[in-house]
Amino acid sequence: MLPYYEIHLSETKKSLLARIYGVYTIKMATYGQNINIVLMANTLQFKQADNIERIFDIKGSKVKRDVEITA
Fold first, then answer.
1. Is residue 63 part of a domain?
2. Residue 58: which of 40, 36, 35, 46 has the closest Cα?
3. What domain count does the chain have?
4. Within a domain: 35
5. pLDDT tens, 20-38?
6. For 22, phi and psi rounded to 5 degrees?
7. Labelling 8: which of 14, 19, 25, 32 has CA 20 to 30 A away?
8. Does residue 21 form part of some domain?
9. Rounded to whole angstroms, how far apart are CA atoms 38 and 21?
């Protein structure tokens, strides 16, 4: 699946698929556990398009996931 993702992103500069820059593990010495994160590009730069009616942020966290859309 990764080769198709890479081809799509290279051929479609304004793709709404998030560009993944890296997957990292942060070792939290204070809490004694690791945190896995994915670093992705912000796709909201395209929210001004006329055909986009709604924007959803569907990451795993429920904290600060609301998106305010201004017309």
1. no
2. 40
3. 1
4. yes
5. 888 889 887 777 788 888 8
6. 175, 160
7. 25
8. yes
9. 8
